[in-house]
Design brief:
By secondary structure, this protein is an alpha+beta fold. It is built from four helices and eight strands; from the N terminus they run H-E-E-H-E-H-E-E-H-E-E-E. Strand 1 and strand 2 form a beta hairpin. The protein is globular and about 35 Å long. The two termini are about 20 Å apart.
């Protein structure tokens, strides 16, 4: 299932990533994250470890059928368990609900190379990352023609 998505990121898609709401599901509670903001409740919950949000849904921003997305999500869950990573489920939601919700995982302290490898494996264009006390950042896996990039966006290399 190796993906070879490699393209410049469309500026409109970058805007959509930045406007999205990333909900972390922690039992009955949901923590809502947005790019460029600090999230002290999440820092406290994660015992101040770095984290990343990754989905396997809709590779390359191309919608897949629900069953295909669920199968890919199950594979991501298996890969994170095999890597020994703690995780929490996420729901990544577009504003205005003009794109279907995407389920993913918040991964606790993932290795950067492993994260990039899995994001590429599942055809993802970006991941959401955070460090304790810092803002939620958007890490792009492919070049973006927007120059300069917004403050909370970086190119993720490893």
């Amino acid at each position: 299932m190796e993906s070879t998505v490699a393209t410049d990121l469309d500026p409109a898609l970058l805007d959509a990533f930045l406007a999205a709401e990333y909900q972390v599901v922690d039992g009955e509670a949901r923590l809502s994250l947005t790019i460029g903001r600090r999230h002290p409740k999440l820092d406290q919950r994660l015992r101040r470890h770095p984290w990343a949000i990754l989905t396997a849904f809709n590779p390359g921003a191309n919608q897949l059928p629900d069953d295909a997305n669920q199968q890919r999500h199950n594979q991501l869950q298996a890969a994170s368990a095999l890597a020994g990573l703690e995780s929490l489920p996420t729901i990544n939601r577009a504003p205005g609900h003009n794109w279907p919700d995407e389920h993913g995982l918040l991964l606790l302290a993932p290795d950067r190379r492993w994260l990039i490898l899995q994001a590429r494996r599942f055809g993802q264009l970006a991941v959401v990352c955070g460090e304790p006390g810092g803002q939620a950042l958007l890490g792009l896996l492919d070049p973006c023609p927007v120059n300069p990039l917004p403050a909370a966006v970086f190119e993720l290399h490893g």
